[in-house]
DNA sequence: GATTTTAAGTCAGTCATGTTGACATATATA
DNA sequence: TATATATGTCAACATGACTGACTTAAAATC
């Protein structure tokens, strides 16, 4: 009855799920859900003297071995200098190694060491457990919706590229 | 055929959406979707010399005026010292004001000034536009699924409290 | 009424992670 | 040969978190 601003479709149909407070709920759910999901690995990382930045790099390197530094920069959207520090830490701890590219010898291709892979797997397993529980509790249709909405939140000019990188579907 | 680890239900039914790579996709979608969603307000904030921390505080104060400092601390899950700096900035810029609680005079109740409310509205409008587009493109069922999954990602021991705070449903 | 707990604020120091800007080196490409 | 690209590095700085210690005022409890 109240608070239906910008929630009327062009046929006068009330699009209830687009009401202001429904949008606010979506925004806040994203905040709390993301926060708690991401906080999960923190304990494990802390014992190793690593942070979330290291985790992100580890994730994308583990996911696609022989990734170039530049590809990783594009994925993470941080500066070369920021990533440089992270990679130095990971190398120093023997979690990541770099080798010269064969086709392009300017490139330094990144991959996890065996030890790095162990950590990557351990962290990923924890995150998968959490998201798997949420997925299972919510059911397959909900999961499809979850993806659809998140895909729509990705910057339009990168969406197709990002979705292609993430994998089929979406 | 391949990669069905932990994706078989106890009846042997392949729960495709729980396959390892589907979970990974979910994790990555969350990363990219959240990142781009959150990055949106940054420009506007930067021109004011404010950051995301200020935005979060502003959001929850605007959303529930006369919030106590402690309530805000619980919501944001940061330390008193971190919040202190943020509130000092917001007060100094005349965006937030504090008044003594009447029932409990130890409390400092927070609310936005008129100017603070203008900024809050401006930022929220931008975020709403983005999420509204994603919601509209995805449709109501997808939105319901989006919420269901995100609610499931919230820490179990706080979930009901957080969901109650966010609002009806979910 | 005295004691303890709670709400809030503050000072000081540290850490993680991001930023700019400038510059160097090796290699690929035009 | 000249230019562009991929990477790395030095230095300085900003933001937003943290810990630990301590204060003040008010409420709650003994």
Largest sheet of chain A: 3 strands, antiparallel
Poorly predicted parts of chain A: none
* CATH topology heading of the largest domain in chain A: Arc Repressor Mutant, subunit A
Give the strand content of chain A: 5-15%
Most extensive interface: A-B, 62 and 62 residues
Distance between the termini of chain A: 35 Å
User: Which structural class fits the helix and strand makeup of chain A?
Assistant: mainly alpha
CATH superfamily name of the largest domain in chain A? Answer: Winged helix-like DNA-binding domain superfamily/Winged helix DNA-binding domain
The rough form of chain A would be described as globular
Any idea what the CATH architecture of the largest domain in chain A is?
Answer: Orthogonal Bundle
Helix content of chain A: 55-70%
Average pLDDT metric of chain A:
92
* Radius of gyration of chain A, CA atoms, in whole angstroms: 20 Å
Order of helices and strands of chain A: HHHEHHEEHHH
| Spatial arrangement of strands, main beta sheet of chain A | 1-3-2
For this structure, what is the CATH class of the largest domain in chain A? Mainly Alpha
Q: What is the count of DSSP helices of chain A, taking H or I runs of 4+ residues? A: 8
Oligomer type:
homodimer
Find the count of extended strands of chain A (DSSP E, 2+ residues): 3
């Amino acid at each position: 009855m109240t608070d239906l601003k910008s929630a009327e479709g062009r046929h006068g149909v009330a699009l209830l799920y687009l009401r202001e407070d429904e949008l606010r709920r979506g925004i806040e759910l994203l905040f709390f859900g993301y926060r708690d999901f991401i906080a999960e690995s923190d304990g494990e990382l802390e014992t190793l003297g690593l942070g979330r930045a290291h985790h992100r790099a580890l994730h994308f390197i583990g996911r696609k071995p022989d990734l170039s530094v530049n590809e990783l920069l594009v994925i993470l959207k941080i500066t070369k200098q920021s990533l440089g520090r992270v990679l130095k830490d990971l190398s120093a701890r023997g979690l990541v190694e770099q080798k010269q590219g064969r086709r392009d010898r300017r490139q330094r291709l990144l991959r996890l060491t065996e030890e790095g892979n162990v950590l990557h797997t351990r962290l990923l397993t924890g995150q998968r457990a959490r998201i798997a529980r949420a997925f299972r509790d919510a059911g397959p249709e909900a999961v499809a919706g979850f993806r659809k909405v998140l895909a729509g939140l990705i910057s339009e000019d990168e969406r197709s590229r990002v979705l292609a990188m993430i994998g089929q579907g979406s």
